[in-house]
Design a protein that fits this description.
With 166 residues, this protein is α/β, with parallel strands linked by helices. It has a single domain, classed as Rossmann fold (3-Layer(aba) Sandwich). Helices cover 38% and strands 19% of the residues. Strand 5, helix 4 and strand 6 (125-128) form a beta-alpha-beta unit. Helix 1 runs parallel beside helix 2.
């Protein structure tokens, strides 16, 4: 049996702050150093930064874009493997479900949907300066909190490894 690529999905906002982009780039670098492939939405902001970091360390990147082609959805310059879904925001489920774990950095409502897909489908998710939940009936601990890029990567890899053993 052939080994499959180890993939972590990284989600976050297109209109990210400089601080969120720095975190994302550091996450990309850390994932690549540890041999993990980055999967994201393939656009700007957090997505571009995580891909830039991964590629700087010789890592691999996959972008699942919302449109049908490059004219509709231009990928960022650091996406190595481009997938045009033609699904708009519905592609968010593909992003959340395709990694062995998810790291959420910053983000707006698109990121919130990806977090929800991960939680619904029990994909381990690590949050780094992202959405916070506190309402009755929700287990807020399912969104594992991280303090920095290294912490986020270590927690995501540990959760992915634990998931793959079950």
């Amino acid at each position: 049996m052939m080994n499959r690529a180890m993939i972590i999905s990284v989600i976050g906002g297109e209109d990210a702050s400089a601080g969120a982009e720095r975190l994302a780039e550091d996450v990309g670098r850390e994932l690549a150093k540890r041999g993990w492939t980055v999967l994201c939405g393939g656009g700007a902001g957090v997505m571009e930064a995580v891909c830039r970091g991964a590629r700087a360390e010789g890592g691999h990147t996959i972008g699942i874009l919302p449109g049908h082609n490059a004219q509709e959805s231009p990928p960022n310059d650091y996406v190595e493997f481009v997938i045009y879904s033609g699904l708009g925001y519905a592609r968010n489920s593909m992003i959340a479900l395709s990694g062995q774990a998810v790291i959420a950095i910053d983000g707006a409502y698109g990121t919130l949907t990806e977090i929800a897909y991960a939680l619904i489908h029990e994909v381990p998710i690590v949050g780094l300066h992202t959405w916070d939940f506190s309402y009755p009936g929700h287990d807020a601990e399912r969104l594992i909190r991280a303090e920095n890029a290294v912490d986020a990567v270590e927690k995501a890899i540990a959760a992915a490894s634990k998931r793959s053993r079950h």
